[in-house]
Amino acid sequence: MDFSISDDRRMLTDTLRRYLFEQYPVDHRTRVAYAAPFHDPAQWAALAGLGLFHALAPEDRGGIGGTGFDVAVVFEELGRALCPEPVLGQLMAIRLTLAAGGDLEPLLTGETRAAVALDEAEAGWDLDALTTRAADGRLTGRKTVVYGGAGADRLLVAAAGPGLWDVAAGDAEVAGYGMIDGGPAAEVFLDATPASCLIPEARAALEEARDWAALALSAEALGAMEAAFAMLTDYLATRKQFGQPIGTFQALQHRAVDLAIEIEQARSIVILAASAMDTPERAKRVSQAKHLVGRIARQVAEEVIQMHGGIAMTWEYPVSHYAKRLVMIDHQMGDSDWHLERLMGMLEAG
Amino acid sequence: MDFSISDDRRMLTDTLRRYLFEQYPVDHRTRVAYAAPFHDPAQWAALAGLGLFHALAPEDRGGIGGTGFDVAVVFEELGRALCPEPVLGQLMAIRLTLAAGGDLEPLLTGETRAAVALDEAEAGWDLDALTTRAADGRLTGRKTVVYGGAGADRLLVAAAGPGLWDVAAGDAEVAGYGMIDGGPAAEVFLDATPASCLIPEARAALEEARDWAALALSAEALGAMEAAFAMLTDYLATRKQFGQPIGTFQALQHRAVDLAIEIEQARSIVILAASAMDTPERAKRVSQAKHLVGRIARQVAEEVIQMHGGIAMTWEYPVSHYAKRLVMIDHQMGDSDWHLERLMGMLEAG
Amino acid sequence: MDLTYSPKERAFQAEVRAFLAEALPPDIAAKVAARRELGKAEMDRWHAILNAKGWLAGPWPKAFGGQGWGPVESHIFEEECCRANAPRIVPFGLKMLAPVLMTYGTPAQQAEYLPRILDGRDWWCQGYSEPGAGSDLASLKTRAVRDGDHYVVNGQKTWTTLGQHANRIFCLVRTRTDGKPQEGISFLLVDLDTPGIEMRPIRLIEGGYEVNEVFFTDVRVPVTNLVGQENEGWTIAKFLLGHERTNIAGVGFSLQALEQVKALACRVTRGGKPLIRNPLFAARLAAVEAELEAMRITNLRMLDRAARGGRLTTEPSMLKIKGTVIRQAINDLARRALGPAAAPFPSEDLEANLQIAPEGHARNAASYFNNRKISIYGGSNEIQRNILAKGLNS
Amino acid sequence: MDLTYSPKERAFQAEVRAFLAEALPPDIAAKVAARRELGKAEMDRWHAILNAKGWLAGPWPKAFGGQGWGPVESHIFEEECCRANAPRIVPFGLKMLAPVLMTYGTPAQQAEYLPRILDGRDWWCQGYSEPGAGSDLASLKTRAVRDGDHYVVNGQKTWTTLGQHANRIFCLVRTRTDGKPQEGISFLLVDLDTPGIEMRPIRLIEGGYEVNEVFFTDVRVPVTNLVGQENEGWTIAKFLLGHERTNIAGVGFSLQALEQVKALACRVTRGGKPLIRNPLFAARLAAVEAELEAMRITNLRMLDRAARGGRLTTEPSMLKIKGTVIRQAINDLARRALGPAAAPFPSEDLEANLQIAPEGHARNAASYFNNRKISIYGGSNEIQRNILAKGLNS
What is the ipTM of this complex? Predict the structure, then answer.
């Protein structure tokens, strides 16, 4: 048993944290995240240069990491900085390309930016209900809210089956927009769009990629909630009402303590999920993490706003953007209830 | 719109409250509720003499009340005094006898004490899963946790169908015991026991009787939680820790306030259910009440213990018995989740 | 005990319902249903329709041009407006300033301002909160110094809702700095065209503009604009806080929002079935409906009491807390129900061209975030708990 | 990062498991599984079995007859004991007094008492709490006045767990009444056979007897029974509160209890289906399991830190709060799962003759009520929150 972080991973964490702190401060983030292209392409390139994508891939495939812990520490830092760069699509593309036995290199250098198109309006997060159809090497259908879809070079598309298809973004109609919590997304319209099949029977690969994404989002939420909580404790210590710091009011103290305990729970479940990514327990641990973090992230967001009061309702004060991200993470890759239902299905297995 | 209580009903309430306060104080209650026969037969007779059972039946059938509000105010007072007399069985027997067109008189005078046997070990609260069988005017099966079953004169038994049967208690094997929160119950073993059929197709009548029982239990919980909450506020005002009354600690204040708000919710939903007993909305309103009161009663019980601290864990301090009753009410006539599922089934109807 | 409206009240309810069916412009109702921001023109249009009917100021006494509605009629009117997706009446002039003027204003002030509120010439906004003094009004710092026939006002107000549409503002200002902090406050009417006033919008969490900061630099206000006595503002502020609280629970909003979520849950699918048959979602819906029904009855009990002249003590604070919690829970369900489709930043363009969420629901997440405010403003739920705690053992 | 046990730790785990399979008497395990009260004879029997193996005092240093287990081994041992339904080791002598004696006791005290703890001649109980001083130890009132070679003790202790089986008690007593309240407290060992002591049982909410009141009237205690210096008792009390907190979360209990609920939910039916397929119940089960897994990891992280010599700061309080909340949630599910069958007052007779609940579950409601204590004793969760609040901004 050893819960210490390896030197390599600590270096990665430290580098990334310092870089984001200096180069991607929250006011810059707010400027770029809500206006087209809804992220900062220069920063995307710089992050690639830092080796960020290499950290998401295993060493025997040209990466420098690729374990659950690597992914978790990277996304925790992205979350702490509220970074809107579409790294999630890149991670999923790396996992799917690994499963397809393809070439990772363009993804790792960042030369190719990929987005993965799973969800559809009627299907939600359900891979069995997809209606996008493949015929004669062409895809027809509409994929909805594709994270990082705006500006991506390649689209990895899940079609009915489910099968996995590769589409050059230029061949599809990609209608980009920003998310309510910042960052790029897109609707992808496929109308007999040329595509090449990467994995004909892709259920296992898609579930695996989605589990990695769910781990990443859980870790991102963890970083974001730690940052938001730190802002709260600072505020409680400095803001005065009725002549004393509001942090001296016991009712607020106890609620802040409860948040601290919940955040500790979130950290632990992310660690557990990260440890299980290459084991048969992956699905269970990931769903436990995404379920629990989803619940806790909402609680943290709501409580941090409530305890701040009005100021946290403003666009100008960064807590509002953290709160939005914390809540909206639950809408990506299956929400808290969706993962709880997945766990309910596993109960009888033990 | 008029939320005032009618003079008749206020007189009934006042009489009952004063009577129970004087004649059935909580130390007497604790003495009788946990030792055979688990209630006080003399008090049973006295309550009958006060007209308690008449209040549960409509005027055109020999009673003096019988509306939802009559039942609610009677059981609220029983709950406030934590009265363990098996009035619930009498209420259900009155409703079932009304449905069967039978003679209420022996029930109203208290000359006959009746218990209604619904639940079975495998069926739980499910009337469709009953296995007690009727053949040639005889019943065979086991009914479990029959409230008031010990010492009852008549048993109204739900058998598979469901049908409703009348059994003389002396003809069955009745194994009496006390409940963890006080009061009498019994296992009823039927082995070709003679029985007369009261209602051959009794689903509607049984559901209606159970809804009346659920209203009564919700009102009983309301009375009990108000009493328990009053003990808590007294305790918070007098008990000192770290040199000041614990009621001055803001964290406890806010939690006490939250309980007060929840109790107000409980009162309102009981009023709503009581108003709907003779309308098509009965099932929905009763399930809303039993669901909500079940949740709130548990919260009140747990919080009242926690905020008191150790003393509320003792048999000697009355709050413990109130807390038990508040929690265990949820095990009678469908728990909070059971009623929520019933409501879920009604959602699409509007 | 009788939970139903009297025949007279039912007749009024039918009258309101019929009027709304006829008079409420469908374009406005559609915007309200979709929780899109209304422009000033749309709000003015609706106010004018109501004013023509005489219902803009229903609760005002007849002497001032109202209908003299009691709490029950007001409640019925508001409930029906919510059900019909009518816009909320902008309360600052009609429900906040007007009662103050009727109680503390001079006949001249009443004659000057009340008609202008009714016919829409004046749009009032509120200058109470200041930066650094959220729920703690006694600590406010905006100074008004007497200079001949004028006060000279310096300071800053914030959270001024819809100030961008307003031409006048009523303010609490400090007119004395010695003594108890509560005792040096006055209630002042200010024309926003006066030199030295700057209004700056505050962008809110979800991206909308509905509140503002107001800066006062040497703003000269005639002393005739003082309401009540100098240094009596605290009394007026307390009067206002205790006033018009019968709709504090927002039952009508919640009922309407719950109906919308139910309809949405019948429309969207999860795992191939309508969401409303998903047990976890259905459980949340059914549970919040039970809570809302309970609160609806608590609210009616309070109205009944108020209508009989009973004094409201703890009820408004209880209803504020429970009402906001329930409304936020319904907003939460509306957001959840969309799944992936909740994510886009809402815009007219997106709604018109991409239709990602079902029609009318593109702003569910935005509404959820925006309505985090309701448990903060008007005395946060924490302040309400403090108020209730004082009454616990009395 | 590696969440699994080392090969050495796994070998130890296997050894413990094998030992328990062989040595734990089945009659005792069955009683523990059914949460029935154990008698003194049964507890003595189990202690003797452990002592024979040398594992009764595993965490004690070897010099005192222990195994010198670190936090991880202790945790493994406790986890396996829970899994096997072994009785909890009675902690008062072994885990509370012993470390105090090893740190503050004289060699004579160590030589006299430690062996008697091991071989079961002494059963210690704890005299800390007093009526009216729950979590506020500094306010204790039991006096010990020096009289020659003796202290004369007068006062009352309460919440003395399993005092009915004990022959000795360690107490905090007041030896000085001036100065700061913390500074006049001493730590005293008392033979319960001394004249003037009366032990009265306190019946608990669910009907069981496990705690007592202890009354002291002119009880003469030799001064040699003082541990540490006079008026140094507060230091010892704090040492003890900070000690042996690696099992504070009760993870083992919760894991075992959750397994029992799962098995129960597979066995009982609701609406004709196994309860475990009822979506609302299954959702509660799956949610609490996720919480428990998270806390299990938090607990391991703390153990890892302690094993590396790191100082524990906020972890014990966090684990106390979350651990008790989760355990109580599992107790709640065990009670709910029974439906109507939860209601009977449990008794040996009922279990033997009527079998109302499934075997081993007749006491589910009683356990639920009894375990409300765990968030109160040992520093209530409110006290833990106060402790954590102090550390929030540091």
Answer: 0.96
